[in-house]
Design goal:
Elements: H1 2-11, H2 17-26, H3 30-33, E1 50-51, E2 58-62, E3 85-86, E4 88-90, E5 106-111, E6 131-132, E7 139-141, E8 144-149, E9 154-160, E10 164-170, E11 177-182, E12 194-201, E13 207-213, E14 220-228, E15 234-239, E16 244-246, E17 261-264, E18 267-274, E19 280-287, H4 291-300, H5 305-320, E20 323-326, H6 329-341, E21 347-348, E22 355-357, E23 363-365, E24 372-373, E25 375-376, H7 377-380, H8 384-391, H9 394-410, E26 419-421, E27 424-425, H10 434-443, H11 451-462, H12 470-476, H13 487-507, H14 511-521, E28 528-529, E29 534-535, H15 564-567, H16 575-582, H17 585-597, E30 614-615, E31 618-619, H18 631-634, H19 638-652, H20 668-678, E32 680-681, E33 689-692, E34 699-703, E35 709-715, E36 723-729, E37 732-733, E38 738-740, H21 741-745, E39 748-755
Parallel strand pairs: 35-39
Antiparallel strand pairs: 1-2, 2-4, 3-6, 5-11, 7-8, 8-9, 9-10, 10-19, 11-18, 12-13, 12-17, 13-14, 14-19, 15-16, 15-18, 20-34, 21-24, 22-23, 25-26, 26-27, 28-29, 30-31, 32-33, 33-38, 34-35, 36-37, 36-39
InterPro entries: 6-hairpin_glycosidase_sf (IPR008928), GH-type_carb-bd (IPR014718), GH92_a_mannosidase_put (IPR005887), GH92_N (IPR041371), Glyco_hydro_92 (IPR012939), PNGase (IPR050883)
Protein name: Sugar hydrolase
Keywords: Hydrolase, Signal
Length: about 775
């Protein structure tokens, strides 16, 4: 970039500083603008390590895995930017989750004559194998991470393919090289988390094993295979439950006897390589099926470190080129990194031969598709999955849907995933939000899966009475709080999911199902209290629960990770009807303003981990608020949406490690920013519409899955011109505050003319507003 900038400068000395900056900035590719450290500080919970697009392996440093239950929130991704030491490099991580797990198969290099097999205390240098490091020595880009481990003086580099992670360690000259393989290490220290594990070294030097863990997901099995680029001179396996080592061989392999296993719940290995004249490479593959599956995955991605890195770099460059940005450097970095974070999950989980372990703990085979897992659906149905419909090939999106349907078929309960990772159900969060993901994809034209089968799976999930108070919801028209916690939230989220089922059924000609779920889509009204203007929890006898405090946030209370202020706006499929209950458009605007302006000085939310990024009672760090700024569009005041978006972007995002105000939640926080920078947002998945906000980049070019391009341009964009004066679509005036999906995928240009003062006449009429069911389909 320095060289490129100098060339521009030499070629155009007469240009203004602004023009010069714009030219050099616009020449930068999306790949080169990504900063994987964004979100690794604060409460973003992202990791900086190596991963391929939607890769099975997320190979990243862990800075602290010693935290106990209820103390691990800040280390949910294993790495935290303000930690001073690295404990090792493990192969599985969440990107931005609000809960800890994974951190499987931790590897740490060591140098010298003696090796310690305990991680030690981060506050006591030299007390264990962990090492101090400096951010000055770190490098990260999509698919690659490197750091110098200061204590042993080892340069560590990481890259990853779809199903493998590859390490490269450069050891100090003249010092013996070692690797520590610790199967005890894990993120989130549940008591007795390691249920069982095994280690063995095969005659060809391949190390294989497994472990079964009890954590966020129960009884999760993961197998692995490891090969080094140099022969293992000697090794020792230890079970720290007994401290009796299995020494194995000393020197070259002597045959089948060396395949003996060490079994237990606290296994750690020391691998010795002697003094090396070249860097040591280590290739690691994982599988949920068995050790042979891990070996096959290892062999499915040929090549050394540089080969795998180049292949993954090319995959990232191609994927990130789905959107090219022209913007000032900080915004370009934030937008590019948001796109990167949106492409980490759902992650591949089937082996190279298609086999995977499903929610029934049995091995299945994906025929004609790649099975994916890590579905944080309560978060990602809102914007992450709609974004992937615009940026990923149809096959990828079809694979996501087929993975959800395969999980439903294998589910012991016959329902779609709720919050699934590594094929296992966690039952975390509420709703049946695989439903809007499937419906939105189908209604936007994604095929490659059976629509009738999908509808049946959706209906089964929505009618499984034992789940989350659904039995009462179907009988009473709401979830009663005296029988089910978080009842107010569940009522409105079920109602939205039901509306998407009705839309899907209608498209398939199932008018009976459409009528049934259209009725249920109106159940949100049953928990809306006209007297207070808030969504409230009702008891089985029909009375609203008292006392009522719209600011109260408590786990297991009336609402899910929020309160009445956020959840009273959750009627994405019929904001017009909700506004009517509030007293009309002006009343809705006053209430929206009151939400953003609320004085929180006397409130304490320190007990609620996910409540971050407050602007009054708007909570951007958690998902229930994410559509709210766009609701001014629905009230006929789009300039107010533009004001709020500027306020949110400026206060909730920045190009820095603490640049996310809350958990990225497997891409949702990033997807919100990405849509918002483009100038529109999917308030109502399933409507095939996007509410128009305002752009934050000068120009963006989307290369769509069908090969066409859609360009967003912003004339006069600057801090001094935050308002939309005029919008054109393919050169013709667009006098509405919504964009249709078919208009995007047809290709073309959406152009904004920005100005200093609000345009109070643009897109104000009822017909110009985004979708509401009571206004009927357009």
């Amino acid at each position: 970039m320095i060289i490129g900038s100098c060339r521009v400068a030499l070629a155009a000395l007469a240009l203004s500083a602004t023009s010069l900056f714009a030219m050099s900035a616009n020449a930068q590719s999306t790949f080169d603008s990504v900063d994987p450290f964004i979100g690794t500080g604060g409460e973003g919970h992202t990791f900086p390590g190596a991963v391929a697009p939607f890769g099975m392996v997320q190979l990243s440093p862990d800075t602290d895995t010693s935290c106990k239950i209820r103390e691990c929130y800040g280390h949910a991704a294993g790495y935290r930017y303000d930690d001073p030491t690295i404990q090792g490099f493990s192969h599985t991580h969440f990107s931005g989750a609000g809960h800890s797990d994974l951190g499987d198969i931790l590897v740490m290099p060591a140098a010298g004559e003696t090796v310690t097999l305990e991680p030690g205390d981060a506050k006591v240098p030299g007390s264990g194998y962990r090492s101090r490091f400096s951010h000055d020595s770190e490098t990260a880009e999509p698919g690659y991470y490197a750091v110098t481990l200061a204590d042993p003086g080892i340069r560590a580099e990481l890259t990853a393919g779809a199903r493998v992670g590859v390490h490269r360690y450069t050891f100090p000259a003249g010092k013996p090289a070692h690797l520590i393989l610790d199967l005890r290490s894990s993120l989130y220290d549940y008591p007795g988390k390691i249920l069982w594990s095994s280690l063995r070294i095969r005659p060809d030097g391949t190390i294989t094993g497994m472990r079964e863990t009890r954590g966020w997901a129960p009884a999760r099995k993961l197998f692995f295979a490891i090969r080094a680029s140099q022969p293992i001179a000697s090794h020792a396996f230890y079970n720290r439950e007994t401290d009796i080592p299995y020494k194995g061989f000393q020197g070259p392999s002597r045959g089948a006897d060396d395949a003996a296993q060490l079994l237990g719940r606290a296994l750690v290995a020391q691998l010795d390589f002697g003094t090396l004249s070249a860097p040591l490479e280590l290739k690691v593959a994982i599988s949920s099926v068995n050790e042979d599956g891990a070996i096959a995955n290892l062999e499915s991605e040929a090549g050394n470190f540089d080969t795998v890195r180049a292949r993954t770099r090319a995959a990232w460059q191609q994927g990130l080129d789905a959107i090219r940005f022209e913007a000032a450097a900080p915004m370009r970095t934030m937008a590019a990194t948001a796109l990167y974070h949106s492409m980490i999950a759902p992650s591949i989980f089937s082996d190279a031969d298609g086999r995977y372990r499903g929610p029934d703990d049995q091995v299945h085979k994906a025929e004609g598709f790649t099975f994916h897992s890590t579905f944080s659906l309560w978060d990602t149905f809102r914007a992450e999955h709609p974004l992937l419909l615009l940026t990923q090939p149809e096959q990828r999106n079809s694979d996501f849907i087929r993975s959800l349907l395969a999980s439903q078929e294998a589910s012991p309960f016959g329902i779609l995933p709720v919050w699934q990772f590594h094929g296992r159900e966690t039952w975390t969060m509420i709703g049946y939000h695989a439903v809007p993901v499937i419906a939105d994809a189908w209604l936007k034209g994604v095929r490659g899966f059976d629509g009738a089968q999908a509808l049946d799976a959706m209906v089964k999930s929505a009618t499984y009475a034992p789940y989350g108070g659904l039995g009462d919801y179907m009988k009473l028209g709401y979830v009663p709080i005296d029988r089910e916690p978080e009842a107010a939230s569940k009522t409105v989220e079920y109602a939205f999911d039901d509306w998407t089922i009705a839309r899907m059924a209608q498209s398939l000609g199932r008018t009976d199902v459409a009528a049934q779920f259209d009725k249920r889509a109106g159940y949100w009204r049953n928990s809306f209290d006209r007297a207070t203007g808030f969504l409230r929890a009702r008891k089985a006898d029909g009375a609203f629960r008292t006392p009522f405090d719209p600011t109260a946030i408590n786990y297991g209370s009336d609402y899910t990770e929020g309160n009445a202020w956020q959840y009273s706006w959750f009627v994405p499929h019929d904001q017009k009807a909700m506004f009517a209950l509030l007293g009309g458009d002006q009343a809705a605007v006053r209430k929206l303003d009151a939400m953003f302006a609320f004085d929180n000085s006397k409130l304490d939310y320190s007990h609620a981990e996910d409540i971050a990024g407050l602007i009054g009672q708007y909570i951007h760090g958690n998902e229930p608020s994410h559509h709210v700024a766009y609701l001014y569009d629905h009230a006929g005041q789009p300039w107010r949406t533009q004001e709020r978006l500027k306020q949110i972007v400026a206060s909730q995002y920045k190009a820095a490690p603490d640049g996310l105000s809350g958990n990225d939640d497997i891409g949702q926080m990033s997807a919100w920013l990405l849509f918002t920078t483009l100038g529109f947002y999917p308030v109502t998945p399933g409507s095939n519409e996007y509410a128009i906000g305002r752009p934050f980049v000068d120009r963006a070019t989307l290369t769509l899955p069908n090969g066409k391009t859609f360009v967003i341009a912003a004339d006069g964009l600057s801090d001094a011109n935050p308002y939309v004066g005029r919008v054109t679509l393919n050169g013709r005036a667009l006098d509405r505050s919504f964009l249709r999906h078919e208009e995007i995928i047809a290709g073309g240009e959406l152009r904004f003319s920005m100005q200093a003062k609000p345009n109070r006449t643009w897109a104000t009429s009822p017909k110009a507003r985004p979708f509401s069911a009571s206004a009927r389909l357009r």
